[in-house]
Amino acid sequence: MMKPSKVVFISQELEKSFNSLPNNDPIKKAIIRAIKDLKRNAFSGIQIPKRLFPKEYVKKYEINNLWKYDLPKGWRLLYTVIGENEVQIISAILEWFDHKEYERRFGY
């Protein structure tokens, strides 16, 4: 079932980082496409099992769900869904990184 959502960045710093990417940057274009998809359906990513959550996310953001959206060239965008049972669903982008950094973050 498709669940539309409002998409936000988890912090102003992350939003500034995104806005500072050049408009022709392929990763910025891919993130824009991801945001459009998440606006249409908050659950368009792949859910990550709780046992694999990086401890820093749980500690810093107090998340109870984590989703991965695959970007081109092995990049990943991670987000959490907030207010799933409320009037408005929010997809909060936590960060994006290349595959090597993704593996480092998850301890693979």
Order of helices and strands: EHHEHEEEH
Query: Cα-atom Rg, whole angstroms?
Result: 13 Å
By DSSP, the count of extended strands is 5
Average pLDDT level = 94
Largest beta sheet: strand ordering: 1-5-4-3-2
What is the number of helical segments per DSSP (H or I, 4+ residues)? 4
Q: Which percent range fits the helix content?
A: 25-40%
Q: What's the main sheet like?
A: 5 strands, mixed
Uncertain spans: none
Question: Could you name the CATH class?
Answer: Alpha Beta
Strand content: 15-25%
Q: Indicate the CATH topology.
A: YaeB-like fold
Give a written overview of the molecule:
The protein is built from four helices and five strands. The chain has about 110 residues and is α+β, with helices and mostly antiparallel strands. The protein has one domain: 2-Layer Sandwich (YaeB-like fold).
Give the gist of this structure.
With 108 residues, the protein is an alpha+beta fold. It contains four helices and five strands. It has one domain: 2-Layer Sandwich (YaeB-like fold).
Describe the structure using short key phrases.
108 residues; alpha+beta; YaeB-like fold; 5-stranded mixed β-sheet; 4 helices
Explain the layout of strands and helices.
Layout: E1 6-9, H1 12-20, H2 26-40, E2 46-47, H3 55-61, E3 67-70, E4 76-82, E5 90-97, H4 99-106
Parallel strand pairs: 1-5
Antiparallel strand pairs: 2-3, 3-4, 4-5
